Backbone:
């Protein structure tokens, strides 16, 4: 999704008998209505309160699916978008370049805005604000840039995106300059940028250098942040960054208009927990669920497998972990240096830092298993490039590529390079292992391990920070289409100064053209082949070091009926319940 997979799951040393589809998993809730649940988090929880910014795993799980609705959404078992605030699927005309969507009438915002109904203009403004630097959205450029009028709006030459029309309060029309496959199928219309935003509420906050609309947002989902019902402003009683987030029922929400079940009366997220203590509390306690988890110590894992197996849910996440190599910083602008780094990395050791082989297979290219184009990209074996062939690394091969890059002895002799790693375990161990491996090629590093919340926002997602390598990053699908696996992190047109997801700043003309062409395809088979071809080019150019295709692991207390959402592989708190 769209989402960075920085903490995709609990790193379990799973027994061979543990099937990939997981245990204790349910596709829909069969528990009771009411009650309270608490999610224990260790890495800081959400990245932002603003729906225009949401793009990461915890944002989706904690806030988007619970407090907001969009044009389209993802019921727990679904792998295709379903109408939410839209009345039906998009009506496509003008050779795929005009999309018309009807909006449900009478949907009201949460208090104190309960007299305000959702209108088509709210979706127009929501999409427009996703292009504002003050919002810092990470995917609008990827999926919406071909909407007519976007470029003048981005350049400040127009006050609105002219391609988005609202002929009446219940009709939204989107005109594009070319067919856009992920819009006509509604995939990209089932993302947080289509969460309705009243302009009269948000505009003044959006004019700030960094928008604070998230602290004053108007909710449409079954839940709202506690304490906002009187003034609309988020207070410390409902949210304290990294510490607590409390959700209560939204009295304006009408169940008959929504596919969500919304069983709980109250949902609390508690951050800053010790992994060992909180993991044990979840497994042995009552009314608790895992949140943004990293790996607890091995003794807890073994205990979970032997005594709490039915409380676990394990499945492929359609996500990938990689090392980002910044192509704008020497010597990483040289493809043979990047291939040398790919060749020297011991992917097996990196995987061990997260828990071993049952955390997922070693990646040989970028499109993950179960995604369209995976088999066309060679499946598990990949494309057969020699620098990707040895999962334990090959120092001699790596040195040969360094020699091709002009380093006569196969070693780098330049200035130190800035490397940013997450300081949370197990990511910190991954960063340390990478540091040890890369120095074999003579690299001197300014190696820094920083707060989890700062890895993207201040360093790896901010081009001006001039970070050369980021070894603790990853990427998960935005939806079940491989454009969402590749385009955000590889297309040169997606490089932005705030909220950048093209971490390598890849800007290869041939690859850009391949992806731009693939975007316009509407036939699923043709799209799969086209994105597999883009994967080959990207892997050949070594913009990233792919090393793990993740499994997602969720766990909950015995009295909790946890339901996983297929869209982002984490708990769906609007379907889960108490038993």
Residues:
């Amino acid at each position: 999704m769209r989402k960075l997979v920085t903490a995709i799951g609990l790193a379990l040393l799973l027994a061979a008998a543990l099937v990939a589809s997981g245990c204790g998993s349910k596709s829909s809730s069969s528990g009771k209505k009411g009650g309270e649940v608490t999610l224990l988090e260790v890495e800081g929880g959400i990245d932002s309160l603003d729906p225009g910014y949401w793009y990461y795993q915890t944002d989706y799980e904690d806030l988007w699916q619970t407090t907001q609705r969009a044009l389209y959404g993802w019921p727990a078992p679904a792998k295709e978008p379903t109408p939410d605030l839209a009345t039906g699927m998009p009506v496509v005309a003008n050779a795929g370049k005009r999309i018309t969507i009807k909006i449900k009438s009478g949907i009201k915002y949460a208090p104190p805005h309960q007299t305000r109904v959702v209108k088509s203009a709210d979706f127009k403004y929501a999409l427009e604000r996703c292009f504002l630097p003050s919002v810092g959205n990470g995917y609008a450029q990827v999926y919406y840039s071909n909407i007519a009028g976007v470029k003048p709006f981005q350049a400040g030459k127009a006050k609105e995106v002219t391609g988005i029309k609202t002929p009446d309060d219940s009709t939204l029309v989107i005109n594009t300059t070319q067919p856009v496959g992920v819009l006509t199928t509604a995939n990209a219309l089932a993302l947080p940028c289509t969460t309705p935003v009243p302009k009269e509420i948000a505009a003044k906050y959006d004019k700030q250098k960094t928008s604070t609309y998230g602290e004053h947002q108007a909710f449409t989902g079954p839940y709202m942040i506690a304490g906002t019902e009187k003034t609309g402003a988020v207070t410390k009683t409902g949210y304290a960054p990294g510490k607590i987030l409390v959700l209560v029922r939204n009295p304006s929400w009408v169940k008959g208009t929504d596919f969500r079940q919304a069983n709980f009366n109250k949902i609390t997220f508690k951050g800053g927990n010790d992994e060992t203590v909180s993991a044990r509390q979840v497994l042995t306690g009552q009314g608790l669920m895992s949140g943004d988890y990293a790996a607890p110590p091995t003794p807890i894992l073994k205990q979970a497998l032997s005594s709490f197996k039915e409380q676990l849910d394990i499945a492929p996440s359609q996500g990938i972990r990689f090392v980002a190599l910044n192509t704008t910083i020497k010597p990483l602008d040289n493809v043979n240096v990047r291939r040398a780094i790919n060749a020297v990395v011991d992917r097996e050791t990196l995987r061990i830092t997260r828990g071993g082989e049952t955390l997922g297979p070693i990646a040989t290219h970028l499109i993950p298993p179960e995604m369209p184009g995976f088999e066309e990209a060679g499946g598990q074996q990949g494309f057969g490039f020699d620098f990707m062939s040895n999962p334990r690394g090959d120092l001699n091969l790596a040195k040969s590529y360094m020699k091709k890059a002009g380093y006569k002895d196969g070693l780098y002799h330049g200035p130190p390079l800035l490397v940013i790693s997450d300081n949370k375990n197990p990511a910190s161990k991954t960063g340390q292992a990478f540091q040890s491996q890369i120095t074999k090629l003579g690299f001197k590093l300014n190696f820094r391990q920083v707060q989890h919340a700062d890895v993207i926002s201040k360093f790896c997602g901010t081009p001006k920070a001039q970070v050369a390598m980021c070894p603790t990053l990853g990427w998960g699908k935005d939806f079940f289409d491989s454009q969402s696996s590749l385009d955000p992190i590889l297309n040169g047109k997606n490089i932005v100064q705030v909220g950048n997801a093209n971490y390598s700043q890849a800007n290869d003309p041939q690859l850009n053209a391949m992806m731009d062409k693939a975007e316009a395809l509407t036939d699923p088979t043709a799209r799969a082949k086209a994105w597999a071809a883009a994967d080959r080019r990207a892997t050949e150019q070594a913009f990233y070091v792919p090393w793990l295709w993740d499994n997602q692991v969720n766990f909950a207390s015995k009295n909790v009926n946890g339901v996983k959402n297929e869209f982002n592989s984490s708990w769906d708190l609007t379907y889960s319940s108490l038993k």
